[in-house]
Structures
1.
Amino acid sequence: MRKIPRLLQAVLVIGFVYAAFVVVFDVFLEQVIPASLLTMYMFFVIAGVFMVFTFTEESTRELVAPIKALVEDPSRKAIRNIVFAVLPLAVAAYTYFSTLPSYQAPVELRSIHPAPPSTVRAFEKRYDLLTLENPFRKYEKEDPEKFKQLVVEGGNVYTSNCQFCHGDKLDGKGPYAQGLNPVPLNFQDVGTIAQLQESFLFWRIATGGPGLPKEATPWSSSMPVWQKFLTEDEIWKVILYLYDYTGHQPRSWQHD
Ligand code: HEC
């Protein structure tokens, strides 16, 4: 049996590792690997592979032999011409398509969902929004009965506190809504909670309009500071209710 050329070996190893990363993340961890992380991993993998493959002069020579042959060997003129024509064209096409502007209108001019700070203070504690999770979310799978009960309790919190502004159908059309600017958000709309993480909602509900960072100006929001009136648990439950009623799924970091 002929030995696989070293260059092909290197490419195969790199391709295999790449596929392994993607498969491991996708199938076993059920997460999409962030592109920047993948780039970083692959940088080290490629660097590592080339270190191993160029360890001795002998192996370096074997590795570059096919490239050298392609460039120098007179019998490969035809292939050489094809490669030298196709390669620049491929790069040109890639560059062209990646810089092509998209004519879609910007979704929102004012930042309705301002970037959250990475940590927030509420209930006299400091929360790390990157890791904060809804403590009740796990019951959706583990104990559906209990989860249903929690959603009902969240619904009660909503009815007695939030519907005046956000509406009894969660569509932002509560009786007070007309007089407010900015208007209370419509949670049915795919542009609101469907795009957000539960930790983001926790922050917004606990600290309300006054908790908004400066980029949310010029309007001042009437959204109350709920940490003054509700407990932490009540806030987490009302969040369960918002997603349950609207049928939206909270966003999670993995699918960003
Ligand atoms: C006095 C009216 C009012 C009440 C009552 C009120 N909100 Fe709001 N809420 C607003 C307004 C106005 C906004 C939009 C401006 C902003 O983002 O602060 C808003 C925004 C929000 C947001 C941000 C959503 C997003 O997509 O960024 C959440 C979450 C929210 N409210 C949840 C609640 C919950 C839960 C309650 C009840 C516990 C509640 N609100 C009660 C007026 C109100």
2.
Amino acid sequence: MNKLRFQTFTIAFITGLTLSSAPVQAAGDNHSRNLAASCAACHGTDGHSVAGTPVLAGMDKKLFVTQMKDFKSGARTGTVMNNHAKGYSDEEFEKMADFFAAQKR
Ligand code: HEC
């Protein structure tokens, strides 16, 4: 392979990588997905709860963040969510909120 062809190949390859990774980002990055996965034990896969725990899928982003902050601060009392919410930063609440808001109810 001569130098020019190799460069053309490299550029095409990198462009392809960039384009193919874009839709994955839009659907919620891996970090958001991983955060949400730790809620699945009680709130179901992607927030589709089946066992009487509140459904998170499709929850309004602002409502979600408010509730998580209230659990964290103790403004709202619950059984397990107060302890659970303490493990996350406000930035992570935002990421989770985006993820769950994007799920269909
Ligand atoms: C051990 C089970 C359990 C886990 C794990 C869990 N939750 Fe909960 N969640 C509950 C229960 C039970 C409630 C009802 C309030 C309470 O008793 O604390 C609740 C309530 C909520 C509510 C309020 C919903 C509403 O409409 O009132 C939100 C928001 C929430 N959880 C988000 C999450 C998120 C985000 C995670 C993961 C980071 C998570 N929960 C992990 C059990 C759980």
3.
Amino acid sequence: MKNGLTLFLGVFATLALSWAGVLLTAQRQFGGLAQYKDPADESLNPAALSGIADQGRMVYQDLGCVSCHTQQVRREGFGADIGRGWGTRQSVARDYLREKTVLIGQARLGPDLRNAAARPYADAEYFYNLLYAPQSVAPGTNMPSYDFLFDVRPASDQPSPHALRLTGRFAPAPGTQIVPSRRADELVAYLLSLKDTYDYPEARPFVEPKQKEGGH
Ligand code: HEC
């Protein structure tokens, strides 16, 4: 095989060039992406994650929430995400600037969480209850319980103002209280940050320019 080296170099160059092409195109498109300065109030968007929310991002990653939840709202015409109430607009690259690891995910056993905190019912209490006892807020759900993120303490201790206020069959055993651990607080801070409601120019739906009358 006297052309072996030429063949090898040819295949190598083809693969190397296409790899570099993919990388450089993405870098050109997104590498210089920065926060968007609102022309009216000069706020920078997306705002940086608070320290505790950033730690919560790591808890989310650590616990594998990404195996059931995506974080990307697809635009109209590419899925029913907006119709399902998972967001009011498509997700754009700039939304993810504040996150060191982007947890887009690919399986949707549960709802998309990119705008979890924008839902009208979603406050900190809802998220704590969901993590401790998913059935208490969503009966019949497949979402697993993350009750190990909570401490069961004797109620005779100083009653915690953060103790969960669950009733019925989810109520703590008599004489005990259920208090979120530091990791639960971090995770809930992260969930509360999931709210892509800022309207970037690039997130607006593309509208076909009107044909000029008589134009060709
Ligand atoms: C086995 C799959 C699975 C895993 C793993 C999982 N979830 Fe879920 N999750 C679900 C399902 C299913 C629902 C829908 C609940 C319902 O029926 O309303 C849900 C609902 C939610 C909701 C409420 C969304 C809404 O629209 O109100 C949040 C928030 C949430 N999960 C966060 C998490 C977090 C944080 C983790 C990781 C600690 C996690 N989930 C892990 C399946 C999962």
4.
Amino acid sequence: MNKTQVCMSPFRIVAVKRLLGFALLGLVLLCGCAEEGPVVAEFEPNWVFAYNVGQRSEQPMDLAMSQTQQALQDLFGTPDEPKLPEFVSEDDEYAQLISMDHLIKASGPADASERGLFRKHCVTCHGVTGNGRGPTAALVDPYPRDFRLGRFKFKSTPIGTKPTKQDISYLIQHGITGTTMVKIPELTDADIDALVDYVIYLSWRGEVERSLLFEAGELDFTDAENPESLYDPSLKNGSEEQQELFADQWDLLQEFVLDVADNWLEAPDEVKDVPERDATVVPDTAEEVLAAMQSSESSPVKESVARGKKLFLGEKAACSKCHGKEGKGDGQTDDYDEWAKDWTKKFGVDPTDEEAHIPLIARGALPVRKAIPRNFSEGVFRGGSEPEQLYRRISLGIEGSPMPAAELEPQQIWDLINFVRSLYVPEPDPDTPGQPSGAAGEKVAMSSSL
Ligand code: HEC
Ligand code: HEC
């Protein structure tokens, strides 16, 4: 594992120290990155969220951050030695959520035998912490997912609920077409199961971190007479009153942890089934839709495409509002996704005011990009191009993006799927002139700077 994947660069450390005044934390990080000795992987604090909470609550966040890090380590362990709190592992129901064996297998250094799957296969993009800030993150479009918000795009459950394990597993198995996240053929089913649990673990930890920092913004750490604190295990050895205070802190921690766990455990009950499809009307592939369109004979597929077009352009479905009249993704292109809004709009930071972003970018935020609707002429569907997957995208929407859930009848959704696929313009195959290649589906979007 490369050092830069684990530690902040010296520039970042200096910037963080100067800009944040988190001198102590900066020092700890510097020591952690010393030239000699093995590099110990650490979970990076959520500097961006902490900074915004600090700005809003107008108080220094250094104590809040160190207490949050302590609490997270006591609950979830470290990248090399992950753990789960006892109130999870010893509870019949919560213990089902993720398996300790999976965590051990997916965590640890990339070169560890029988371990290290996440750092071997995922960390260059998603980062050790799952903050979507691996070394290559800033160069790719779309950005890798930051799991800490607990939001996922391509799933079988509605917006506002967690994905199922199968949803995450499908994406690791197939890759996310049209993005840099590709299928990794060497992963076995058991590896994928372990990685799914590890994604949940990182996301869980990240959501709890946010809850703690948010809570810290409500406390007064600076009251000289009676300073409040978020998590202070030394209180356990204090007076009766102090012990009670710690019990309250622990209760709150437990509440934060179990709230997130409940959401994950509920996901399987939230799944929306996809109705049966008539393959003579809704064929398996875009190529079959194109063939029907090119034929001079009328067919149920052609009729369905015509109905879909009407809906697409119509007011009720309003697809063309965002995707453009020809589905080229050139309708509404000035919105942002929730990962960008999370550190801008949500905290009153104007997403277009680049100067206001400087302190946040210094802390690890990635420059904002607009959320661009899909261009259907490319025929690339990130969440999977099977009609059943497209049905989910349209009927459930895409969480975290502007794409809403469409409130339409099943047949209308199938018609839209046919229409959207009929817009695919296969790229000419360079080897066989005149033949379409289908390579568009494999195309990977990298920024020109790579
Ligand atoms: C080369 C970069 C790269 C690598 C390596 C990579 N990913 Fe991703 N991943 C991405 C990008 C980019 C996205 C965001 C796609 C989007 O927003 O449409 C993503 C999104 C995800 C998501 C969120 C899916 C959703 O529905 O929102 C999960 C989960 C995920 N990756 C897991 C993994 C795991 C596990 C690995 C390792 C086996 C991995 N990724 C390796 C780039 C990568
Ligand atoms: C408010 C804007 C908006 C509206 C309205 C909208 N979309 Fe989207 N759509 C988007 C955006 C943005 C994306 C890209 C989401 C992403 O992956 O980040 C998208 C993505 C998609 C995808 C790609 C899914 C994938 O797996 O890659 C499909 C299919 C789609 N939209 C179909 C539709 C249809 C059909 C309608 C009308 C019922 C519609 N959209 C309405 C904004 C919109």
